[in-house]
Design goal:
Layout lengths: L9 H10 L1 H4 L1 H15 L4 E4 L7 H6 L4 E5 L2 H8 L9 E3 L11 E6 L10 H14 E12 L12 E7 L2 E8 L4 E10 L2 E10 L3 H10 L3 E6 L13 E7 L4
Parallel strand pairs: 1-2, 1-4, 2-3, 4-5
Antiparallel strand pairs: 5-11, 6-7, 7-8, 8-9, 10-11
Helix pairs in contact: 1-5
The structure holds S-adenosylmethionine.
S-adenosylmethionine binds next to strand 2.
Length: 246
Amino acid sequence: MDDPDGYFGERAAATYDESSAYMFDPAVVDPAVHFLAGLAGGGRALELGIGTGRIALPLAARGVPVHGIDLSRAMVARLRAKSGGDAIPVAIGDFAGTTVASTFSVAYLVFNTIMNLTTQAAQVACFRNVAAHLEPGGYFVIEVGVPDLRLLPPGQHVVPFHVSPTRWAYDSYDMATQAMSSNYVEVVDGRGEYRSIPFRYVWPAELDLMAEIAGLLPHERWDGWTREPFTGESRHHVSVWQKPAT
Ligand SMILES: C[S@@+](CC[C@H](N)C(=O)[O-])C[C@H]1O[C@@H](n2cnc3c(N)ncnc32)[C@H](O)[C@@H]1O
């Protein structure tokens, strides 16, 4: 991937809000914003991978000062074009290492975006980077899926998740390395186009260990933003770690 905007370059950015419309539904956004505003408790928030502002803008509208980090100028240009988007400071860079000159009472990384870091070392670096930006007592929140390995029959490593006459999509898993990719084949103007996005899937317990390495303590883990219990059947989780107050 040579594009400095990573996998969220101009083309992905131009259609992001439309293609992720279900994630912009107030029924999805409002509980997340409520959860994060509660943890911010009157302080500042930092969104890693702020994108087009799906969560940042409504959180800022609630009075929480929000900063962001994102690799993609194209995504941030969409944020800037929205009402209130100009008022949100965004550092362009990799959230595993990019710093901003402020500290925060909450930092958050939603919509599976921790998996965009494709090595364990980069994911650990992200936790360390967040810890360095948190005020004592501050929180780090991750929303991410539980790896879907239970969908794989023995001997298979591919899970289809969309099949239609003009579009096929599947996830591919490498159990040895935790590398995965989401792959899309689409017929556009009679021609097949292929796109593949690499990820690294990560287990809840592994995230806890990354937090510990970064000096953060487990605070809470739920199945979703409205604090439904996290169980062995949960397909995703919202997890929170806290920087010790002293
Ligand atoms: C799935 S989108 C999520 C955007 C937004 N948080 C949301 O919930 O709609 C992922 C975003 O993370 C950004 N991103 C991915 N990997 C990144 C990295 N290593 N450093 C900084 N930004 C990254 C992408 O550019 C994109 O804007």
